[in-house]
Amino acid sequence: MTVGLFIPCYVNQLYPQAAIATLELLQKLNVDVVYPSKQTCCGQPMANSGFEHLTQKCNDLFIENFASFDYIVAPSASCVLHVKDHLHAPENEQLAVSVRSKVYELVEFLTDILKVEKLNARFPHKVGIHQSCHGLRGLHLAQMSELNAAPFSKPAHLLHMVQDLELVSLERPDECCGFGGTFCIAEEAVSVKMGKDRVNDHIKNGAEYITSPDLSCLMHMEGILHRKRSKVKVVHIAQILNSTR
């Protein structure tokens, strides 16, 4: 298979180390990875702000960049969900449907497509998982706690393969961090209070690191941790799965 590596714009600009870890991890798993250099924003910020009608050029460019690959993989649940739900091409909707069906968030690609059962990784720290809303409720990366159903967690499944890593249990394992894209700008006070609650759950239960498939959530919580002068750090799950320290 050949995978097109989709790196969201904020990851590219602010967290390139997560993008590099994603690339290296896929290469370690013998995946042929190509990075289309002309890719830009998928259009999610505009769509979330009520301007989806202005995102067509983003859609067209995404299709141009990624239509030829067997799979499209990204280290961002929210951007993947946006593409899966909102990528359209009025002049060739069948092509858009085909592209949407090939887009995967990194964790679901590792578990559902590659079916990884072993990783050569080591991360000797206590880690708390933040289940992002888009990953949890949109991509179903884990079971929602309010459902009376068997629990599962694709991120936890992979993290259990990492040597010397200890997962910490949280009191509210799937609570929103309050980021919500442009919500954190429009409703700043509510967003910050939600973020503080989410961070405190991790701190109280002994996490040294908070990880997630969504760097946007981690970015929000990182700011709160920094202002609290906390020693707890955030790290994208790709960096843990790729770590050998």
UniProtKB/TrEMBL annotation:
<dbReference type="Pfam" id="PF02754">
    <property type="entry name" value="CCG"/>
</dbReference>
<dbReference type="GO" id="GO:0005829">
    <property type="term" value="C:cytosol"/>
</dbReference>
<feature type="domain" description="Cysteine-rich">
    <location>
        <begin position="3"/>
        <end position="83"/>
    </location>
</feature>
<dbReference type="InterPro" id="IPR004017">
    <property type="entry name" value="Cys_rich_dom"/>
</dbReference>
<dbReference type="GO" id="GO:0016491">
    <property type="term" value="F:oxidoreductase activity"/>
</dbReference>
<feature type="domain" description="Cysteine-rich">
    <location>
        <begin position="127"/>
        <end position="221"/>
    </location>
</feature>
<protein>
    <submittedName>
        <fullName>(Fe-S)-binding protein</fullName>
    </submittedName>
</protein>
